[in-house]
Amino acid sequence: MNLIERLNWRYATKRYTNVKVPPEKLQRILEAVQLSASSFGLQPYKVLVIENEELRKKLLPAAYNQPQITEASHILVFAVWENITSEKIDQYIQRIADVRGITVESLADFKGRLASLPARPAEQNLNWAARQTYIALGTGLVAAALEGIDASPMEGFNPAEFDEILNLKEKGLKTVSIMALGYRDAEKDPVSKFKKVRWPKEQLFIHF
Amino acid sequence: MNLIERLNWRYATKRYTNVKVPPEKLQRILEAVQLSASSFGLQPYKVLVIENEELRKKLLPAAYNQPQITEASHILVFAVWENITSEKIDQYIQRIADVRGITVESLADFKGRLASLPARPAEQNLNWAARQTYIALGTGLVAAALEGIDASPMEGFNPAEFDEILNLKEKGLKTVSIMALGYRDAEKDPVSKFKKVRWPKEQLFIHF
Q1: What is the pLDDT of residues A158-200, one digit of tens each?
Q2: Residue A188 within a domain
């Protein structure tokens, strides 16, 4: 099945069976998320991969009892860095130097461009970092669809309660979005039969 | 080539050859963008597909003269709705009814949930809509990579100048991000030889 067929096949699944996503498929989806593009390549976020059932039961009320939280095989929680610090920038520059086998000094120009980030208002950086997680979310949704794995992107939850339950404050993180992964329960999920709705091309695209 | 290989192949291309993306490949990339997930499925944005060279020359200084703007085959400009109005919500509900062959009345519950959007502060909706465009950007980047088409996600430009040059104010739109599409000029682009840098899995992912 090609990409377009896969994207037509996928939908924001509401009800899942209890079938587990095989480890090798999960790994490929996570690898796609890891390879996602981001501004400056900084990836200013972490991704929590939650299979633990007890923990998901605790998260359920914080997601308005949406069944995907506990029925899905796994949930991914995208959480941004609460602050973009000079220390984080230094770590990133070191990481580039390590991967490419070059000196930190040779990255001085690039580091200079990143230096503006810690100086920006925290709110601006949170919004900017959150946008980067949506590239990863989009990449993860496509990767799941190509693996034949159902997924649900979710914004309908209480981020502060998620942060609390997952102890994200002490990790310097803030929850932005969720992606549930698993297999659709077509019988229980009426949405699985709905026709996909998108704006028509002539309305969505403007050609110049 | 599989998805992971394709994602490793892609990079934020800085220099392009003058080879054009074939129409059928462009169409599939646009179709993937059209099929992107979004919150409520609302897709609160439009995508400008710019091939016109004169227009791209005008946009060049507003993007700090980054060569991708004029060298790439096409540039996509993701622009959010400046306001999420009740009229837009009504159009969307009508669209769902039309696609699914159901009545608008049967969508009353869903419409009720969407009704909260026009009541939110404009700034909140702009940020929320912008996030949705990043899912489309992520989807478009993957689609391009699978087609063997190079792409550059770009945030480094002056959005107000883009809005002005593209007359977006009168269309009720605001520029958020750009995606250039084309074929890398590996000789002119030193970045094409750089090793891809990502946070290692054990740093990016937290397993529960």
Answers
A1: 999 999 999 999 999 999 999 999 999 999 999 999 999 999 9
A2: no
**A and B: number of Cβ contacts within 8 A:** 188
pLDDT tens for A21-41 read: 999 999 999 999 999 999 999
Q: Which residue of B has its CA nearest to A200?
A: B34
CATH number of the CATH domain containing B17: 3.40.109.10
pTM (predicted TM-score):
0.98
Q: Which strand (E) or helix (H) includes residue A50? A: strand A45-50
Q: How confident is the model at residue A48 (pLDDT cuts 50, 70, 90)?
A: very high
> pLDDT digit string (tens) for A76-93?
999 999 999 999 999 999
Quote ipTM for the complex: 0.97
CB-based contacts of B200, cutoff 8 Å, min separation 6: none
Taking CB atoms and an 8 Å limit, are B134 and A134 in contact across chains?
Answer: yes
Extract the residue ranges of chain B whose pLDDT is less than 50. none
Residue A3 has its nearest CB partner, among B32, B96, B153, at B32
Residue A193 C-beta-side C-alpha neighbours within 13 Å = 5
Q: Residue B60 sits in which domain range?
A: 3-83+122-181
Domain count, chain A: 2
Give the closest-approach CA distance of A127 to chain B in angstroms.
Answer: 7
Structure confidence at residue A1 (pLDDT): 67
**What does the alpha-carbon distance between residue A109 and residue B33 come to, in Å, rounded to a whole number?**
34
Q: Quick one: closest CA in A to B152, which residue?
A: A37
Distance from CA of residue B21 to its chain's centroid?
17
- Measured CA to CA, the distance from residue A103 to residue A23 in angstroms comes to 37
Helix extents (H) in A13-79: 23-34, 53-59, 68-71
Locate the chain A residue with the closest alpha carbon to B80. A204
Task: Assess if residue A200 is contained within a domain.
Answer: no
- Select from A79, A102, A63 the least CA-distant residue to A167: A79
Nearest CA distance, B6 vs chain A (angstrom): 10
